[in-house]
Amino acid sequence: MLRNDQLDQWDRENFFHPSTHLAQHARGEAHSRIIETGSGVHIEDRDGNRLLDAFAGLYCVNVGYGRQEIAEAIAEQARKLAYYHAYVGHGTEASITLSKMILDRAPDNMSKVYFGLGGSDANETNIKLVWYYNNILGRPEKKKIISRWRGYHGSGLMTGSLTGLELFHKKFDLPFDNVLHTEAPYYFRRPDLAMSEADFVSHCVAELEAMIEREGADTIAAFIGEPAMGTGGLVPPPKGYWQAIQPVLKKHDILLIADEVVTGFGRLGSMFGSEHYGIEADIITIAKGLTSAYAPLSGSIVSNKVWDVLMKGTDETGPIGHGWTYSAHPIGAAAAIANLKLVDELNLVENAGVVGSHFTSAMRDALGDHPNVGEIRGEGLLMAVEFVEDRETRRFFDPSKKIGPTIAGELLKNGVIARAMPQGDIIGFAPPLCLTGDEAQQIVDAMTKSVESVLGR
Ligand code: PMP
């Protein structure tokens, strides 16, 4: 086995890490962390630290680490047939079976699933599909996509544009022109503290309507949103948000893309976030929880309404000019089948709801009255604690104080991995869906200790 200092050196010399301060990393100013093994909700690093991963990797290892059933399924598929493509009607038993399993779980109006590798490429597919859709319907001007500030939809060219976080645009010449951003459904950060939740929903709707009016409905193809926001702050929507937004989209014939990369397959305590909030999407994006990240695989589930137009398109113009070499990769499909079986057998969707509500209420009991805790919000096993300098006026800390990252660093010392979310002092939790009540309490205890050591009581 290679020595840690050797790996550390090779890492700095050769490895271009995503979402990393490249200069600091190359200069060795931050300790690089090398993860060695995982089992259940725990991972172990090369320094021998055993950590409770309360963010499931990047909220993707939903069934937990070390599941032998999935490893076996991958090995068996690799031995039998590691690869064949899915172009011009080709398939494998794994990819066909998985398509059926996904459609069996998806909302009733869904028709087919197109497979990709990750959330970003699935959303790139979705954008191309809605453009194609409008071209086939003879509406070539109807192309703009509305996303929300703080929405996260990937880091490709169009998906990075849709992502409503400044870091993903700065110095990349993004966002592109045909992307629009509207108000995030983030009640804690409402523009006026006096607004009730219902007033805030009306405000979000009014902003959307004004945008449609300004741009012209005949120029807008789709609206994309995560049922509950992820990277932008782990924010469940205010009550009634989706019920108020959807009629506006319907009225203007704007397709709805539900980006369920995080919420799909149980995170909120329902199989899909769409089901959880009563969202009737035209396209659903899936990734992460589809395979619990045992292999890369994503999907775009398209509704009957969209599918009918796509079929018409190929009758008019020939085969659809969109495909990846690795679409429906058999190893990813085998991993997903084994993963979805485990989700069922272990009742993980239900567990996410039950343990999730215990987790959130235990966190509120422990930290709800801390003077710097502005809000503790959660749905299923997606939870966030947001910090403020002053609770009464909701004054935020100066970002240079790095309160969020400091608390996350302290949590790590206390044996728990959580994520300091990128915009604000927000500590995010999205543990594997197999989390137990005891493990939830361990996270709460570690968080309490960490918060008190950084901010006092
Ligand atoms: N959509 C959402 C909601 C996501 O959270 C993410 C990733 N965190 C993506 C899309 C992009 O997925 P990927 O990183 O697999 O490209």
Automatic annotation (TrEMBL):
Its cofactor is pyridoxal 5'-phosphate. Keywords: Aminotransferase, Pyridoxal phosphate, Pyruvate, Transferase. Its EC number is 2.6.1.77. It comes from the Bacteria. GO terms for cellular component: cytosol. GO terms for molecular function: pyridoxal phosphate binding; taurine-pyruvate aminotransferase activity. It is an enzyme of class 2 (transferase). Pfam families: Aminotran_3. Gene3D superfamilies: Aspartate Aminotransferase, domain 1, Type I PLP-dependent aspartate aminotransferase-like (Major domain). Belongs to the class-III pyridoxal-phosphate-dependent aminotransferase family. This is Taurine--pyruvate aminotransferase. It comes from Roseibium album. The lineage of its organism: Bacteria, Pseudomonadati, Pseudomonadota, Alphaproteobacteria, Hyphomicrobiales.
